[in-house]
Amino acid sequence: MVEFLLNNRLVKTHAAASTTLLDFIRYDENLRGTKIGCREGDCGACTVLIGSLKEGQTAYMSATSCLTPLPNVHGKHVVTVEGLNLPNKLNRAQQLMVDCSGTQCGFCTPGFVNSLCGYALNATAPDLKGVISAIDGNICRCTGYKSIERAAGQLSEALLQKDHNQPLEWLVNNEFLPDYFLGVQDQLSAIQSHNLPQGGAVPIGGGTDIYVQKHDSVHEIDLDYLFDKPALNGITFNGDSCTLQSAVTVTELMEHPVLLEAIPNWYAFLKLLSSTPIRNIATIAGNLANASPIGDFTILLMALKAKLTLTNREHATRQIELKDFYLGYKTLDKQPDEIISAITFELPKNNKFNFEKVCKRQYLDIASVNTAFQFSVNGNTITEANGAIGGVGPIPKFLSQTCEFLANKEINAANIRQAEGILQIEIAPISDARGTIAYKRLLARQLFFAHFITLFPETIQMHDLL
Questions:
Q1: What is the pLDDT of residue 195?
Q2: If DSSP codes are grouped into helix, strand and coil, which group holds residue 55?
Q3: Which of 23, 207, 442, 448 is buried deepest, with most CB atoms within 10 A?
Q4: pTM for the complete prediction?
């Protein structure tokens, strides 16, 4: 049985564990404000808020309910747009959408309102950039966005007065939230934890892959729910070695203070990965096990020389380098009863690291080509290079020949151009829906050069390479 708070009431259900939160909300609970749009996590029409008890406080995040397995909200607070209504009036986010003409057909509006209220709950230093970022997973086909941006901007201005000593009380008193939110923490504390369905044949984390790939057949799959298992959550450090447990989400990585300090532009790199509601629920192991040839985290972690720990049902473990994990298209060096239990890599504290990605739109899109490089440098000499590229073949590719050539080479235009020639021989791209062979080769060249222009601007300029 899954037990959680849905808006202001307790829900206990024996619905099939593979049910999505979206379907349960709409069809079992008849809350139709949560819309069915793409069912792939792209449009944001199904966005809800999910609150979890963390360190004695209730922490809220936005999430795409179309990709959220029902067991993943056990013991949590799920908020739909109906659960944000005040008695006989609109809340502040809803009213601002009206005042700024932020809604036309209205289909996307509940998702925007949920994301804006989530921002109100979480914002500690509200500003326009932050509130716009909070709605990066919500798409509108009518307004052109400027009216919604005006509403979001006025919301962030109102939040400048937020009382950070009693934030929830302030939000209720200032009509951002209904008053039942004040009792949610006690209600969540009273929910008894119990073992949810586990031990199934197919592991599932945040659901952002399997519910897209196998939406029509997922109800027939014996699933093993891993998202909230304590042993699979957490980020730890041993010196410069970082270990990610497999159910860590992209948002947790994106916001971790140690990673933000150790890897320049870390936040900007991860901002290119999907959208806020997806990053909040997508797990790192799921991104790797998806085996997509253009998986962004795969390319990032290959360049960081990551190693995977694989654990089977008898709890036996083995370790493998990520670059050796992909054997062919969607084929992994992994046994059927193994899961990725941890990912380990060294922080590039004294190295140069960069990630580049090209896609049809800057955010919320799948890469045409993506690439990452890490360089160890002594003076003007590269002592070691580690790089990877995606989107040019059936698997994510570690650029072993290119990296071997770059080792112990001076950083100059001639060496970089020669290395790019080796890269072109090494990648053997294929034409697909995201580009022709010629286009992939062009992107590979431009992105390879971009690493050096970005990381060594005092030495390498664009005109030196093109």
A1: 62
A2: coil
A3: 207
A4: 0.94
Residues of the chain with pLDDT under 50: none
3-state SS class at 320: strand
Which of 40, 110, 117, 44 is CA-nearest to residue 77?
Answer: 117
Three-class DSSP category at 189: helix
Residue 77 and residue 5 in contact, taking contact as beta carbons nearer than 8 Å: yes
Q: Which amino acid is at 439?
A: Y
Give the Cβ contact number of residue 329 at 10 Å: 11
Residue 431's CB is within 10 A of a number of other CB atoms, namely: 11
Do residues 334 and 291 lie in contact, with contact meaning Cβ atoms separated by under 8 Å?
no
Beta bridge mates, 283: 249
| Alpha helix segments (H runs only) across 263-335 | 266-271, 276-279, 284-289, 296-303
- Residues 6+ positions from 135 with CB-CB distance below 8 Å: 44, 112, 115, 116, 119, 148, 152, 276
Please report the sign of the dihedral spanned by the C-alpha atoms of residue 373, residue 374, residue 379, residue 384: negative
Three-class DSSP category at 256: coil
Give alpha helix (H) positions in 159-241: 167-173, 184-190, 210-213
Structure-block tokens of residue 428: 């053997």
Q: How far apart, in whole angstroms, are the C-alpha atoms of residue 122 and residue 128?
A: 14
Is residue 17 a contact partner of residue 196, using CB atoms and an 8 Å limit?
Answer: yes
Write down the pLDDT at residue 196: 66
Residue 47, pLDDT score: 98
Q: Which helix (H) or strand (E) holds 244?
A: strand 241-245
**387-413, pLDDT tens digit by residue?**
999 999 999 999 999 999 999 999 999
291: CB partners within 8 A, 6+ apart: 326, 329, 330, 331, 332, 395
